[in-house]
Amino acid sequence: MLYNKDLILQAIDQYNISNGSVSNKRRISDWLHFENHGGGGQVRATILKSYVDNSQPIYIGRLISEYLSASVSPGTLNKIIKDNSQKDCFKHAKILNGGGRNSSSLRTFINSAHTRVTSGDAQFTKPYHNKILEGKSVPPVSIAGNQFIILKDNLNKVKDLNSSAHTVTMYQHKSTNEMYFGKSLTDGSEEKVNALAEVLYSLIWQKFIGDRSSKSLIMIDDSNKISGICSKGLNQFSELKTQIGKNGYPTKLGLLSIAVLSYLLVEDDLHTKNVGTFNYHGESVFGKIDHDYIVSKFNTHRSHFNNDFNLEILIAYLVTQDVNILKVILKSLRFSPGTKNSTMLNVGHYLRGMNGGANTTLGRKATRDFYSNYVTIHNKAECEFLKNKIKKFDIREMDKDYDNITKFAAQHSIVGIEKINDVYFFIKNRILIAKSELSSAS
């Protein structure tokens, strides 16, 4: 039977982190004493870890299979650690066969690690795909001139969608068949300033995760005037909301790095319809769409954005990979895969969903599944990816985008671009601080 020893040990460590410190209980005898006074889950975790650590390949598959079915035999344990007495093996087997199967139990954490491997999911048996997480692709051929402009004449209207307060129109590119989703803009400068700020913000996201983030573009009509803003669709995008079921979160790459990056970039609208899986050059990975929230709320929510996204907490998580710190980070976000929304908000969205609106909230079970299922698998690798990405981030490339956006605004006589400046330098400063702190910590 296939297994991944490191992944199983990682799952045990994640369980222990999620259920308190284990630093003062170093021997199994200490844990057996603790068992008589409570904390049985952590007793099981340490006993299981001891046997997994000492297990040869021929036995570990049987050990994990027996543990998952709550049928560990003393004989299996004795074959793994021959120095243990028969009495110890019987006692350990009894402890290992205890425990529940809820979303925060040790068995759920181990099952998340084990079944993904035995099912043959290749992404857990081959090296981590930084190139996929980077979202690198060939230069887009459908964009003319500046990388944030698209000619409306190159798009065929498909239909209007009633998915937001503004009418959204679906387009298909005449030559590439790629899908775009656009909104018309009025002649005034305010909407155009917001559009350019959104485009700049989307370019920052792409600097981190490339084409795993949708690209916002300014639509230009045949008179070379700004007619709207559109977003390039992600190929075969499937909202996370439609995928969370009895089997928990989809295990594809990229969700955790998007969630943590949302904290750095102050994306407070990462609900289950704005993140999902899509087809990226034949690989199913997580991507992000919709970048307008920070722009639309920046003036009214500036105090919240300044005070409630503490970079010290983010740095601590990226350095330690502590899941308890991750929980604090994601709990701070209005929406995220790890954010349990309030009962009142859940009820409100449920009623809105019954009336045809979008229900984008998550309850306790879904967020528990995220930590016990998805984070157990991906925490170390996605944390390392994002930490290295921030440390190597090239601010000069980001500045070039800002210069191009402001020059474009001047060319089109767009005045009052203070919001573009405010959003840009707010995000730039956060990136600079995170980059400096991570470089100092290494």
Give a brief outline of the structure.
Helices cover 52% and strands 11% of the residues. The protein has helices at residues 5-18, 28-35, 40-54, 57-68, 74-80, 86-96, 106-118, 130-134, 189-209, 255-264, 293-297, 302-307, 311-320, 323-332, 343-354, 364-391, 395-411, 418-441, and strands at residues 149-151, 155-161, 168-173, 179-184, 216-220, 226-232, 238-239, 275-280, 283-288.
Can you describe what's shown?
It is a single chain. The protein has about 450 residues and is an alpha+beta fold. About 50% of the residues lie in helices and about 10% in strands. The protein contains 18 helices and 9 strands. Strands 1-5-6-4-3-2 form a 6-stranded mixed beta sheet, covered by helices on one side. The longest helix has 28 residues. About 10% of the residues have low confidence.
Spell out the key features of this protein.
442 residues, alpha+beta, 6-stranded mixed beta sheet, 3-stranded antiparallel beta sheet, 9 strands
